[in-house]
Design a protein that fits this description.
With about 190 residues, the chain is of the alpha+beta class. It has one domain: Nucleoside Triphosphate Pyrophosphohydrolase, CATH 3.90.79. It is about 20% helix and about 35% strand. The longest helix has 13 residues. It is globular, with a radius of gyration of 15 Å. It is found in: Cytoplasm. Pathway: Isoprenoid biosynthesis; dimethylallyl diphosphate biosynthesis; dimethylallyl diphosphate from isopentenyl diphosphate: step 1/1. Pfam families: NUDIX (PF00293). Its main location: cytoplasm.
Length: about 190
């Protein structure tokens, strides 16, 4: 059972699972430490929800985010705690950030490293990509996490990212690449 979001948590103090280049657990440290230069490779997840028409739900990260604030990205992302099922952690985070409950399916992983020039933080993540289905508007986006949200056609998103790549998070292209390679390009 996924709990309803209730109180604010300092997410920078929560533990993340460190991994090696094959995604095998090697330890743990707080989120803030994992994202301090030069960065430590750790487990993360990225969720992308599709509606019945095939559009994708994007969010603009809140201005208070410690990494890549105000950039557009996939529906939801985060870090599972050590020894936590990635799908369960992603489903819980989806509720916390947007108030959305959706069945999620993992479609692949990729690794990326990106330094945020604005905050001097580093993303170095073994990212699990999950997809799901949702129709409508998110019932309660958390303003501490999300500045805005929108539905977009995947082809329009690709064109927008090509026209203005600096408006999007550096991991979004990897998320889209994993989804395009998967057998299930969008959930039914």
């Amino acid at each position: 059972m996924i709990p309803e979001a209730t109180t604010a948590i300092d997410r920078e103090t929560l533990p993340v699972e460190l991994v090696d280049e094959q995604g095998r657990p090697t330890g743990a440290c707080p989120v803030a430490q994992a994202h301090t230069a030069p960065g430590r490779l750790h487990r993360a997840f990225s969720v992308l929800l599709f509606d019945a028409d095939g559009r994708v739900l994007l969010q603009q990260r809140a201005g208070v985010k410690t990494r890549f604030p105000l950039l557009w990205t996939n529906t939801c992302c985060g870090h599972p705690a050590p020894d936590t099922d990635v799908t369960d952690a992603a489903a819980e985070r989806l509720v916390e950030e947007l108030g959305i409950r959706a069945a999620l399916t993992e479609v692949g992983t990729f690794t990326y490293r990106a330094a945020d020039p604005e905050t001097s933080r580093v993303e170095y993540e073994w990212d699990h990509v999950l997809v799901g289905r949702f129709d409508g508007e998110p019932p309660r986006p958390d303003p501490a996490e999300i500045a805005a949200h929108t539905w977009m056609w995947p082809t329009d998103l690709q064109a927008a990212m090509a026209a203005d790549p600096d408006a999007y998070t550096p991991w979004l292209s990897g998320v889209l690449a994993v989804i395009s390679r998967s057998e299930v390009s969008q959930p039914q």
